[in-house]
Design a protein that fits this description.
The structure is a homodimer.
Chain A lengths: L17 E7 L16 E11 L5 E5 L9 H14 L22 E4 L1 E2 L7 E5 L4 E4 L3 H14 L1 E2 L5 E10 L5 E7 L7 H13 L4 E5 L15 H6 L10 H13 L3 E8 L4 H6 L4 E6 L2 E9 L4 H17 L4 E5 L5 H6 L1 H10 L5 H18 L3 E4 L6 H6 L5 E2 L12 E6 L9 H6 L7 E6 L9 H5 L2 H10 L8 H17 L20
Parallel strand pairs in A: 5-7, 10-11, 10-19, 11-12, 12-15, 15-16, 18-19
Antiparallel strand pairs in A: 1-3, 1-4, 2-9, 6-7, 6-9, 8-9, 13-14, 17-18
Keywords (chains A, B): Disulfide bond, Glycoprotein, Glycosidase, Hydrolase, Lipid metabolism, Lysosome, Signal, Zymogen
Family (chains A, B): Belongs to the glycosyl hydrolase 20 family.
Protein name (chains A, B): Beta-hexosaminidase
């Protein structure tokens, strides 16, 4: 079984899907624009065709398994129509046309085929025909992104697309971005905007590091005190069930999975406020010091609480994976607590607290397994100070379950870490041993909605190309530079506050101030 | 003569100005809020008075020299009313009241006195009376800022102000921010927004580094080709005369001077596009290489051009100072050019190109002196690579004119240079030998409207406190931290996209995404 549900052969739709779009065709002088991340195989010619928003329709093909009513594609058509024609003042113009008008000689038709066998997704634009073959609706969404980047405006505002042939598929199946909503609260709008930008760079996993030491913004229906006492503010700095559902369904329409992380037994200070008895009381000189450490692994009540919490989490977050954290557990408090030490003896762990941690994690993994979820945990081989000061490869799918455990390795980029100058270049050339993918981690110590977007984009896009494109074709940073500059201007044009790479300008500067 | 026109004794208004504002008074439990930058003398008590927007008016005092019609204060009253009451939905409510209603016992009155002798500006808020004494209208504007920061809301949305006594004046007279609009074009809106935020931190000089090598966005009426050929785009990436006037008059209402910089003879690549013959042709192997160096100092036409350009600049920018640049002149091209070498011989400079540079600068200074402007130039003791990679103290008023030249020293903070973590702490403790002030430099290599605001704020505010407040009272970074956090939340509340200092939250998070 793969981690990815996307691009998996024939998993969603097994029959043929045709998507036709009809636009008028003329010929003119050439201009070629790039696509970011670079497709696996890309050929284009100077031959260009005008694209007129008034005559532009997405049309489901006759033999397509998906037809109008397929919400993922219906909404994708709408979104991409606006993205392709930012100047278009849509009045009564419908972006899709019900019925199959064929493709007269003076029309460019574009088709999405969804085929039930493993061939690369393909996009073809030529004088008489433009078609997109995609195995799955998700592949079709990625193809729409590619197509939208191929359409460009000349100096007079007319839209064009060049004759193009593209075969495409991702290099890695897991292409994630982590947002940390505990160190600073991110309003739902900031998350949705990030999902937009993720789709533009073909990211497909939103790793939601939703709670941590500083705050617990997730409003649990089972344990409402967790947020009412553990959030920065019980009303304004929380994610309600409805907020979470909104994020998940919004992400789904972009082909992005939401991987929730409820990190324990460490990083749980905020949990303790709304759940007395959950955390380990620390001792000093034989008496409780009044401070608390990680979750108390010695109490049966801990596991009863976790079972109920993860039962709720499992139903709220439909993804088959759940991230259990497990990083940076400090043993000092456990060691200070006499009850924990008694438990250690009883369990035969001696003085080895890594065994106690493994016992705890194993229990939580068993809880989530019983809920038919696959667990992911952090590779806890680094300490907090290293984490905030140096970017490094740090996580994998923990080998906690000894038998039958699938190993997932992912490199990550700590993009909250900033330095002066063109630091995207490092991300671009970073060549860690990626197994099934990687993710960009935007930890929240110094990041909130005020600076999230310019810190993330276009630097995360550099990572996106490592994750999507062919390694050999994208080995030159210097060749990537003008393409990334161009892509950054596209992001600006789409309202993403992506910061500049270096001196220069975009035709349409950011006007959001 | 001072550099600053602000806070100079009796310079603007010599008689007494009273400003009264009437608000209803009650007593309640206490809460004290801070002011950033810290006033010179500040005492407040837990005694607090409710402030009700419906009953709140700014009223000019009877004996005030300024009365309704004083545009600086009239507009300041309007702006600060909205800043003090962000929730107030202003319908027909007038923020000022014509006439002098006295101060009944149940009212808090607030007066601005403008006195013709040198005493510190004073703000006093007590049960029966609230008054602001200011020597000048500009001091009154700063006092309004201070007052606006004293008003706070409780958890139920009611406004309060505490009993407070403040004596205040700036530590340094020159408190500037440099924006670079050549490496990236900054839309006028981004500049205006920066002026707003500058006023909130009591900055008073906008150093407009308007042109440089990459682009010439200033649209000159005398030489329109400079921008039509030298800007990134001749229509969309320029500052028209009207744009410049708008910036200057907007800044003036905040008590901010606009110091224009037209940097030469180096940093002029963009000038050459619209002014053929201005730059020095570089030679290679005895023939012109096709590239150009600094402005050609050997040609009389150069000085005729500069005289006409600076005549225009002098009339467009009313400030008595003009910045001539003069930094980072590379002598290679001059040295390669045979005509320049002949000129050197003729002038008796031998092989010393610093003499040629001094000759050039002296000519330009004479041009601007004849226009009744005082010149400022960069201390050209650093090379380009140092500049972008390390923050350092780098500029003073050049000692080019040997006799009678006033020396202006200013430390600066290169705030475009970013590093991970709490780098505001360095700015806060930076203790260069400041003579008349300092400025924050936001060079534009990696900054445009997408990331200008979060990179500038609240880090520049840390510098602002060094420039405004008493050195001894503000020597502790740890004491400053919670105050700066609080001030950053105030900036958010005012719509300034100021980035977080560390983990935490504000009551009103940034919602601008």
């Amino acid at each position: 079984m793969d981690v990815m549900f996307m691009i998996t052969c024939g998993r969603y739709i097994r029959s043929i899907l045709y998507l036709l779009l009809l636009i008028s065709v003329q010929f003119g002088p050439h201009a070629v624009e790039g696509v970011w991340p670079l497709p696996q195989a890309f050929t284009s010619s100077p031959e260009r065709y005008p694209v007129n928003s008034q005559d532009f329709y997405f049309v489901y093909g006759r033999q397509s398994a998906a037809q109008q009513g397929c919400s993922v594609l219906d909404t994708a058509f709408k979104r991409y129509f606006s993205l392709i024609f930012p100047d278009h003042n849509s009045g009564s113009h419908s972006t899709t046309r019900n019925g199959h008008n064929g493709s007269p000689a003076d029309r460019l038709s574009w088709t999405i085929y969804l085929v039930p066998f493993c061939v690369p997704d393909n996009l073809s634009i030529s004088a008489g025909k433009a078609s997109l073959n995609a195995e799955t609706v998700w592949g079709a969404v990625r193809g729409l992104e590619t197509f939208s980047q191929l359409v460009y405006q000349d100096d007079f505002g007319s839209y064009f697309v060049n004759k193009t042939e593209i075969d495409d598929f991702p290099r890695f199946q897991f292409r994630g971005i982590l947002l940390d909503t505990s160190r600073h609260f991110l309003p739902v709008q900031a998350i949705l905007k990030t999902l937009d930008a993720m789709a533009y760079s073909k990211f497909n996993v939103f790793h939601w590091h939703i709670v941590d030491d500083p705050s617990f913004p997730y409003q649990s229906s089972t344990f409402p005190d967790l947020s009412s006492k553990g959030a920065f503010h019980p009303m304004t700095h929380i994610y309600t069930q409805s907020d979470v559902r909104r994020v998940i369904s919004y992400a789904r329409l972009w082909g992005i999975r939401v991987l929730p992380e409820f990190d324990s037994p460490g990083h749980t200070t905020s949990w303790g406020k709304g759940q007395p008895g959950l955390l380990t009381p620390c001792y000093k000189g034989g008496t409780p010091s009044g401070t608390f450490g990680p979750v108390n692994p010695a109490l049966p009540s801990t596991y009863r609480f976790m079972a109920r919490l993860f039962k709720e989490v499992s139903s709220v977050f439909p993804d088959s994976y759940v991230h259990l954290g497990g990083d940076e557990v400090d043993f000092h408090c456990w060691r200070s607590n006499p009850d924990v030490r008694v438990f250690m003896q009883k369990m035969g762990f001696g003085g080895d607290f890594t065994k106690l941690e493994a016992f705890y994690i194993e229990n939580i993994v068993n809880i989530t397994s019983a809920l038919n979820k696959t667990s992911i945990v952090w590779q806890d081989v680094f300490d907090y100070h290293e984490r905030v000061s140096t970017p490094q490869q740090i996580w994998d799918l923990h080998r906690i379950i000894k038998a039958g455990m699938r190993v997932l390795l992912a490199a990550q980029w700590y993009i909250n870490h900033i330095s002066y100058g063109q630091d995207w270049r490092n991300s671009y050339t970073e060549q860690k041993k990626l197994v099934i993918g990687g993710e960009v981690c935007m930890w929240g110590e110094y990041v909130d909605a005020t600076n999230l977007t310019p810190r993330l984009w276009p630097r995360a896009s550099a990572v996106a190309e490592r994750l999507w494109s062919d390694e050999k074709q994208t080995s030159s940073v210097d060749k990537a530079f003008p393409r990334l500059q161009d892509f950054r201007c596209k992001l600006l044009r789409r309202g993403i506050q992506a910061e500049p790479l270096y001196v220069g300008h975009c035709k349409h500067e950011y006007q959001g101030i």
